[in-house]
Amino acid sequence: MTKPIHGGVYLILGLGITVLSYYLLDKGQKMAIFFYAGIIMAAYGLIKLLIIRLTKERKPKDANARMVMPKQVPVKYCSRCGSQIRQQDQFCQFCGMKQY
Questions:
Q1: Phi-psi region of 84 (alpha: psi -120 to 50; beta: other; left: phi over 0)
Q2: What pLDDT, on a 0 to 100 scale, did the predictor assign at position 67?
Q3: Mean pLDDT, the chain, as a whole number?
Q4: DSSP state letters, 15-79
Q5: Are 44 and 13 in contact (CB under 8 A)?
Q6: What backbone torsions phi and psi does residue 73 show, to the nearest 5 degrees?
Q7: For 2-19, how does the pLDDT look when each residue is reduced to its tens digit (9 = 90+)?
Q8: Cβ(11)–Cβ(42) under 8 Å?
Q9: How far is CA 22 from each of CA 15, 16, 37, 50, 79, rounded to the nearest angstrom?
Q10: Mean pLDDT, residues 18-47 taken together
Q11: How confident is the model at residue 53 (pLDDT cuts 50, 70, 90)?
C-alpha cells in the first residue's frame, strides 16, 4: 500500500507549473491549459494541507504540566542492612542502626 502524496508536494508543483506556463504564455505559446492546471493543483494542495492541519489532534495546553516529573525525595541506604531510608532519618527503620 502506497502512502498518499503530501499536500505540500501538490502546492509546490502546482505553483511551479503555473509560473512556468505563465512565462511561456508571455512568449506567445499556447500554454493556457497548463496555467489553469497548475492553479488547480496548487489549490488542491493548499486545501489538502488545511484539512490535515484542521483535523490533526490537538493536545490540551495543560498536558505538559501533567508530564512534569515529581520532585524526587533524596534517599540513602542503611550501612548495616542496605534498606532504603529517608535522608533525614537518624536510625534505620528495619534494623535500628544509627545512621551518620
A1: beta
A2: 63
A3: 82
A4: HHHHHHHHHHHHTT---HHHHHHHHHHHHHHHHHHHHHHHHS----TTHHHHTSPPPPPPEEE-T
A5: no
A6: -80, 130
A7: 777 888 888 889 999 888
A8: yes
A9: 10, 10, 12, 26, 83
A10: 84
A11: confident
Q: How many CB atoms are closer than 10 A to CB 92?
A: 20
Instruction: Name the grid cell of 98.
Output: 544509627
Please give the distance of CA 84 from its chain centroid, rounded to a whole number. Answer: 40
Does the global pTM surpass 0.70? no
- Break the chain into its structural domains and give their ranges: 7-55
Q: Which three cell numbers stand for residue 89?
A: 532519618
Length of the chain: 100
How far, in Å, are 8, 37, 62, 89 from residue 14 at the CA level?
Answer: 10, 7, 40, 71
DSSP tag of 7: H
Output the pLDDT for position 62.
61
